[in-house]
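Late entry, written up from scratch paper. The run itself happened at the end of the previous shift, but nothing got recorded in the book at the time, so transcribing now.
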Amino acid sequence: MNKPDPHQISSVAELEALYGEVGTASVRKEVDYLHAHYQALIKASTFAVLATSGPDGLDASPRGDPAGFIQIADDKTLLLADRRGNNRIDSLRNIITDPRVALLFLIPGLGETLRVNGQASISIAPELLQRFAINEKAPRSVLVIHVDTVFFQCSRAVLRAGLWDPAHHVEKKDLPTAGTILAALTQQEIDGRQYDEELPQRLKTTLY
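Output as recorded:
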């Protein structure tokens, strides 16, 4: 039997001894409702990551739309349209068995992010679907998220990443395309060049 790694942290007590006490601000910034200032950040956000957990594992799904795309029903409830995608519905499958969700909001140009933890349900109420219609196309479902905790995250990670700095933007030509990846993973069963050629128009016509 392999000996335990002497450098592995395996208890909360070890973690707390390593990192020290939590600062007052880090504790006080967490609340169990959508404060007006937190609502302002949500209304300005154009992108969020939705995290879920289920019997088959974890999922982190990108969500994006014009600013205010995740609507505030009240100070304990968020509404998120499930826009057209690849029909894997990994997030929705997870929510069916485990309603716990987490959201990480990004605001273009801002270093601070916002984190929301809560519990979600999936609604197909006609009035909700129409509320989120864009170009006369309604989503198939809307997530109703009951908020448990909310807090902002400081800007260190975004600053370290240079996320909004154009000087850090990567040239597309320097990375494999979606078609290149699919062709390699399917042993050329999917024609990568054709996939890439058709993708821009497909995205344009299937955005909503």
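Residues 6 and 14 are 12 Å apart (CA to CA).
(Scratch paper discarded after transcription.)
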